[in-house]
Amino acid sequence: MKVLVAAPLHERAIEVLKNAGFEVIYEEYPDEEKLVELVGDVDAIIVRSKPKVTRRVIEAAPKLKVIGRAGVGLDNIDLEAAKERGIKVVNSPGASSRSVAELAVALMFAVARKIAFADRKMREGVWAKKQCMGMELEGKTLGIVGFGRIGYSIAKIARALGMNVLLYDPYPNEERAREVGGKFVPLEELLKESDVVTLHVPLVEQTYHLINEERLRLMKPTAILINAARGAVVDTNALVKALREGWIAGAGLDVFEEEPLPKDHPLTKLDNVVLTPHIGASTVEAQMRAGVQVAEQIVEILKG
Ligand code: NAD
């Protein structure tokens, strides 16, 4: 059996494949032409968010039985073409949950204690002690919008920090909520009551601009908004207004409506915002877990 690894993959994942007796060929992010050339005799392909596995690639791979995506999103794979051929598609949805949760908490602290701002000032030679009055998280209310894998992981950390947890999710998991001492409430109530609001919903029609001008106006003027879900869950123009005019106190953002965030974007001009370049899943542990989980599923499918 032959597996084409078409994106950087953790060495432990490669070991899983080799230990199963598979031949592994590696080509980093081949273009469609090169992929078509490489897939002629492979049983499996592993990708990340790149390269694209198009219908043409699938049609050029008569032995292909499984496509593995080390990570979550499947938008670079032609699922329809795979389905028509009975090719299985596997991914690793939970592999990065803890990493994203930890980044969201890191952003909360960074905004609450003005860490990025203070660091910038230090480098300019400015001792900005007076401008860096912060807020403690203990005893504050955290509103988690979307109580799935990542939301649950954050709730566990929030509990350890001594925060009160409010939850909003159209499909409430009451047992998990009890476990983390969280309480489901309507979205409007969550926005009004929370000191920190963190978003962990998928981007679907119902969540596009879920946090719009009207909802931002419900939040406390001292509140912080964290978005490590998808940029378009928040109406960016409304958020810029909210941050400029003080409807909320600050924001921590890992995701943007346009990525990479354009140079000189209004968000980059605001001192009460902390920005990171979509790095929620960018940890050694998450990448290792994602690779190993996908490799193990491929072994099971090809050998089973
Ligand atoms: P999940 O599917 O486990 O949880 C999503 C939750 O959102 C579910 O409980 C679902 O019921 C809920 N939900 C659906 N529609 C909703 C709505 N309209 N309002 C409120 N809640 C709603 O997903 P997850 O693994 O927790 O990931 C959440 C999102 O995080 C992903 O969809 C992805 O966009 C994002 N993500 C970001 C990074 C990053 O690098 N920043 C990495 C991984 C995932």
TrEMBL record:
Entry-linked Pfam families: 2-Hacid_dh, 2-Hacid_dh_C
Keywords: Amino-acid biosynthesis, NAD, Oxidoreductase
InterPro entries in alphabetical order: D-2-hydroxyacid_DH, D-isomer_2_OHA_DH_cat_dom, D-isomer_DH_CS, D-isomer_DH_CS1, D-isomer_DH_NAD-bd, NAD(P)-bd_dom_sf
Gene Ontology terms: biological process: amino acid biosynthetic process
SUPFAM superfamilies attached to this UniProt entry: Formate/glycerate dehydrogenase catalytic domain-like (SSF52283), NAD(P)-binding Rossmann-fold domains (SSF51735)
GO MF: NAD binding; oxidoreductase activity, acting on the CH-OH group of donors, NAD or NADP as acceptor
Domain D-isomer specific 2-hydroxyacid dehydrogenase NAD-binding: from-to ranges: 105-280
CDD domains to which the protein is assigned, alphabetical: PGDH_4
Domain D-isomer specific 2-hydroxyacid dehydrogenase catalytic: start-end pairs: 3-304
PANTHER family found in the cross-reference section: D-ISOMER SPECIFIC 2-HYDROXYACID DEHYDROGENASE FAMILY PROTEIN (AFU_ORTHOLOGUE AFUA_6G10090)
Record family assignment: Belongs to the D-isomer specific 2-hydroxyacid dehydrogenase family.
Protein's name in the database: 3-phosphoglycerate dehydrogenase
